[in-house]
Amino acid sequence: MSPGDFRAAVVQARLARMRELLADIDRLGAVTAEQLATDRFVRHVAQHVLVQLVQLAVAINSHVAATVVGEAVTDQRASFDAAAGVAGDRGGGGSRLMERYGSESSVGLATALQ
Length: 114
Fold this sequence. Notes:
By secondary structure, this protein is mostly helical. The protein has six helices and no strands.
């Protein structure tokens, strides 16, 4: 992907999947460390959901980094660093997302994602 190939539908679909996964984990309710240690089913459900959430977050970060600034990420941690840079958290300089989608608020980005 190159800058300009940002696909809001891709990000929206991944965010929708993340919402579903968060609802699934919420169904587990309050889980104790003891339950995680002794109940394989609860442990596997929690682990599966958390792994998928991380994978989806990395996929979103990677897509945004690649399409907004042309930065290819090499691993999961780098995807979060790249996302922070895109959002302007790398030590000043302003947000690249805000520069691209509007500086008043997140409305420009929200509009792009709709």
